[in-house]
From TrEMBL:
This is Flippase-like domain-containing protein. It is a multi-pass membrane protein. The keyword Nucleus does not apply. The chain crosses the membrane at residues 108-135, 147-165, 192-214, 226-250, 270-293. The keyword Transmembrane applies. It comes from Formosa maritima. It is found in: Cell membrane. Signal peptide: none annotated. Keywords: Cell membrane, Membrane, Transmembrane, Transmembrane helix. InterPro entries: L-PG_synthase/AglD.
Length: 303
């Protein structure tokens, strides 16, 4: 897994058809904007982003078992490394479950799903407002007929899915939907609130980090206008299924399109997206590879 993760990272950096790594490094060196002070601040932002993700997971896991911050760190970074080359980070579910005995694993998968969905909810909430103001402000040409048709289909699918899930006999991997819904119902409102707040804090941190990079690259834009584009970018990128290692390509394509409308050149946008990917995914994954190498299956205990 570690060798595979490192290969994918290396391959992504050296064969990126959107932004050649040599051009990227030369562009950073030429602009001379990454002083020790700026780099330190960017790493601090990434550290806080990681901290709130770890704190969110520790808070969720406490529902079934109390774990230390060190254990949470190992689980979060180790699962991030494993999920690099799996579609939509699906590998994270199995990786986190492996840290627990079989009696806890199904609940761990559900808690991980809850944490990811809460982050998605925050992305959607801010993204919908951002996209609305973006379309209004920049008069983007949209085929409203096709968009309305897509929304109608989505609503119909969601309706039939919800109706199907209400049937008590529906099961997924021998787990009834009724038990899953009861599991989520038994989680206290306080836990949901903590999870939502941590997700919001993470969102503000990495979106501000993107804005800070825009400033470093000399893009003159107010925080409000920048957030309109950034929130729209994260919304559109998050709803596109992809292998996690290609996350930089997805976000890069969406970011180039959106920021080109507001006058930001392609090289600057791709450089910022790549740097964000390095700071928040690649470096934590490298640290997580150490935990993957040291991983040992938990000893069975009587529940």
């Amino acid at each position: 897994m570690v060798v595979g993760a490192f290969y994918f990272i290396y391959n992504k950096l050296t064969t990126n058809h959107q932004l050649d790594f040599k051009v990227f490094s030369e562009f950073l060196s030429k602009n001379k904007i990454f002083s020790l002070k700026n780099i330190t601040f960017l790493f601090i932002l990434s550290s806080f982003n990681l901290f709130f993700e770890i704190a969110k997971w520790q808070n969720l896991v406490s529902i079934i078992k109390k774990i230390t911050f060190k254990e949470t760190l190992q689980q979060s970074l180790g699962s991030l490394t494993v999920s690099l080359f799996t579609p939509n980070r699906i590998g994270e579910y199995g990786a986190k479950a492996m840290f627990y005995v079989s009696g806890f694993q199904k609940k761990i998968v559900l808690l991980n799903f809850l944490g990811n969905m809460m982050q998605m909810l925050v992305t959607i909430c801010f993204g919908v407002f951002g996209l609305y103001y973006f379309i209004t402000k920049y008069q983007v040409d949209i085929n409203y007929h096709k968009s309305a048709r897509f929304l109608i289909i989505l609503v119909l699918i969601s309706t039939f899915t919800f109706w199907g899930l209400k049937k008590k006999e529906v099961t997924i991997k021998s787990i009834s939907i009724e038990k899953v819904l009861n599991f989520f119902k038994n989680i206290s409102f306080k836990k949901y609130l903590f999870c939502f707040n941590f997700s919001v804090l993470r969102y503000f941190i990495f979106s501000f980090q993107f804005y800070f990079l825009l400033q470093l690259f000399g893009v003159e834009v107010s925080y409000k206008n920048a957030m309109i584009v950034i929130s729209s970018m994260y919304l559109l990128a998050s709803i596109i299924p992809s292998i996690f290692i290609f996350d930089v390509i997805i976000k890069g394509s969406v970011a180039v399109y959106l920021f080109s409308i507001v006058g930001v050149n392609e090289l600057t946008t791709l450089s910022i997206v790549t740097f964000m990917w390095l700071l928040n995914f690649v470096f934590p994954s490298i640290i997580g590879s150490v935990f993957v190498l040291k991983f040992k299956l938990p000893k069975p205990v009587q529940l």
